[in-house]
TrEMBL record:
Name of the protein described by the UniProt record: Large ribosomal subunit protein bL28
Taxon lineage: Bacteria, Pseudomonadati, Bacteroidota, Flavobacteriia, Flavobacteriales
GO terms of molecular function: structural constituent of ribosome
GO cellular component, one term: ribonucleoprotein complex
HAMAP family linked to this entry: Ribosomal_bL28
Pfam families cross-referenced by the UniProt entry: Ribosomal_L28
Family of this protein: Belongs to the bacterial ribosomal protein bL28 family.
GO biological process, one term: translation
Taxonomic source organism: Croceivirga radicis
PANTHER family: 39S RIBOSOMAL PROTEIN L28, MITOCHONDRIAL, LARGE RIBOSOMAL SUBUNIT PROTEIN BL28M
UniProt keyword terms in alphabetical order: Ribonucleoprotein, Ribosomal protein
C-alpha cells in the first residue's frame, strides 16, 4: 500500500531526528493514511480509497460524490 492520500496528495516526508546533543540522523515522517471504503449512492457501489485524516474530513465536509468528481477531473480516478 503506497503512503499517498488519493484525495489531498499527502505523502511521506523526510527530515532529521535531533538528539539533546544536536546530533542529526535521517528519519521519515509518514502520512496518517487509512484504507477506507466509501459508498457512492448515485452509482450504487463501494469505493476503496487510501485517504489521510485530512482527506476523511474533506469527504465529510464536501461529500464523497463531489470529491470523486474532483478526483476524476484531475485524472486520479477513472
Amino acid at each position: 500500500m503506497s503512503k499517498i492520500c488519493e484525495v489531498t496528495g499527502k505523502k511521506v516526508m523526510f527530515g532529521n531526528n535531533v538528539s539533546f546533543s544536536i546530533n542529526k540522523t535521517k528519519r521519515r515522517f509518514d502520512a496518517n493514511i487509512f484504507k477506507k471504503k466509501f459508498y457512492i449512492p448515485e452509482e450504487d457501489k463501494w469505493v476503496t480509497l487510501n485517504v489521510s485524516s485530512k482527506g476523511i474530513k474533506i469527504i465529510n465536509k464536501k461529500g464523497i460524490s463531489a470529491v470523486i468528481k474532483d478526483m476524476r477531473a484531475n485524472g486520479i480516478v477513472k
